[in-house]
Amino acid sequence: MRMKVNSKYNNVFWTVVTVAVPTMLEQILSVLMQYVDTAMVGRLGADATAAVSTSTTITWLIGSMPYAFGVAAMTLIAQAIGAGEEHQIKQVAKQCLLFALGVGAVIEVICFAVAPFVATWMGAEEAIRPAATRYFFWISVPVILKSVHYILSSAIRATKDTTTPMIISIVINAVNLCLDYIFIYMLGMGVDGAAYATCISAALGGILTLIVFFSNPYLRFKDSIFKTDKSITKKMWNLSLPVLLINVASTSGYVVFASLVSHMGTIIFAAHSIAVGAEELFYIGGYGFKSAANTMVGISYGEQNHDKYHAVCVSSIVCTLLAMTFSGILLFVFAEPLMGFFTSDESVIALGAMVLKMVAFSEPFFGMYIISEGIYYGLGKTKYPFVIEFGGMWLVRILATYIGIRVFNQGLIYVWCCMIADNVLKAILLTIPLPMLWKKSYKLE
């Protein structure tokens, strides 16, 4: 019996790894391309870096909205696959396409409306505002296709096909890199060239994802897109809304957080922005396993297989902790060379490396926060993570940062301490209830 249990855990463990690895590779390649992109702009000087970085957190906010519906798509499709409900899968797929187009259209209109004001809202210095405004406008042009890419890629991953989205990501990032070189250096377009490259590659990503979506036998539907199931629409909203609120609370918090830092000067803001981008590569392992956990937990829920669910949770947590501990060590060791890759400004390198070494110690905690969210999402339990995210972001990170900067005149080190404290607290509060979910029969809320 013991050998059977061990065999079951081993099988689930390797299935989790198999599902997670392509997503991790996709994100690693994507971030590496972003590194090169940022480095190309960084060679133009601190002003160019600041101009591009001004809209970074706003872009995160924009991307978080379709991502919320992607989580709902992944959960519902995975659960339907586990239950063997083919008709249900196609109905959810249809809703995914409708939400992708509708959400993208709404966001597109909002982006064009706020584009002239973003640089001013973010506290960018007067000299860089025109370039920052043009950059934000052009990266907003393909927002509908970005929405299609985010939501439909999640639907594709829910069918355990994580390889195809990875290939699409490789293609669009390679195109972006090539266009960056052509526009920025060969044609001398600077920040505007980076914006054009991002615009074209993002549009390509949406088109390729749409083609793959209609080629997937699970997701392909034949009846009218407007012939929808109201019960599925309601489930999509019930699952998406808390995740949307989580993402809005989180990313709007990042916007306010970045705005507070931007008022500390161009050098400090450049160091902060580059360090935030540099750290991204080192928590990809967590997000890869989060995606796998979301899919595998959803499938085990659909099968009503509690033993498999428990094995998925344990395997995902172990993999995430190992990956994030290793990445934390690498981040600490290579902090200075990493910053030096993005910029030649010695002041920016020194300050950025210091905060990266600090955050390296918190990577395992951040990993627990990430993977716990994936488990909750797979079960369809999205309300509790919203409460934790909102409280951590706005009370621990934002309020503490505001008081430290405005009242006590603290610097970037203090700001990153607030960020680390936020991540650690959220990890603890999300992890504590997990054993209770393992012990009792879980129920979709």
Plain-language structure description:
This protein has 445 residues and is an all-alpha fold. The chain has one domain (2-439). Helices cover 84% and strands 0% of the residues. The two termini are 34 Å apart. 53% of the residues are buried. α2 packs across α11 (266-279).
What's this, in brief?
With 445 residues, this protein is mostly helical.
Features:
445 residues, 84% helix, globular, mainly alpha, 19 helices
**Judging from the principal axes of the Cα atoms, what is the shape?**
globular
Task: Give the quaternary arrangement of the chains.
Answer: single chain
| SSE succession | HHHHHHHHHHHHHHHHHHH
Number of helices: 19
Which ranges are low-confidence, i.e. pLDDT below 50, for 5 or more consecutive residues?
1-5, 441-445
What is the rounded distance between the termini?
A: 34 Å
Average pLDDT level: 82
Structural class: mainly alpha
β-sheet strand percentage: under 5%
**Helical fraction:** over 70%
Q: How many separate structural domains?
A: 1
Task: Give the SSE map.
Layout: H1 2-42, H2 46-53, H3 56-83, H4 86-114, H5 118-121, H6 129-140, H7 143-158, H8 163-186, H9 190-215, H10 230-262, H11 266-279, H12 284-303, H13 306-333, H14 335-342, H15 346-360, H16 363-379, H17 383-406, H18 412-431, H19 434-439
